[in-house]
Design goal:
Belongs to the cytochrome P450 family. This protein is an alpha+beta fold. It has 3 helices and 4 strands; from the N terminus they run H-H-E-E-E-E-H. The chain has a two-stranded antiparallel sheet with strand order 1-4.
Length: 95
């Protein structure tokens, strides 16, 4: 609730003397906390949880294993965004 109120206050301040009271894309640069909240929400609840990519060339991993050209790799966005070695307290909403 406190984050929502802080975002609401920021938007109200931005739109105070504006008519019509509509946010434009360029306004987001003046709303950094709202941007942080949106990004943190997408980190915790990504709209796309997995992506796939086809290797266009052989990829040699640091341990010497090779991912051959033509192999489709799956990348877990959800897993990356909830990985405690990447994010301290990955389940906590922290804009």
């Amino acid at each position: 609730p406190e984050y929502q109120e802080r975002c609401r206050q920021g938007v109200q301040e931005l739109l105070r003397d504006r008519e019509p009271q509509e946010i434009e894309w360029d306004d987001m640069t003046q709303l950094p906390f709202l941007t942080m909240c949106i990004k943190e929400s997408l980190r915790l609840h990504p709209s796309v949880t997995v992506i796939s990519r086809c290797c266009s060339q052989d990829i040699v991993l640091p341990d010497g294993r090779v991912i051959p050209k033509g192999v489709t790799c799956l990348i877990s966005i959800f897993g990356t965004h909830h990985n405690p070695s990447v994010w301290p307290d990955p389940e906590v909403y922290n804009p």
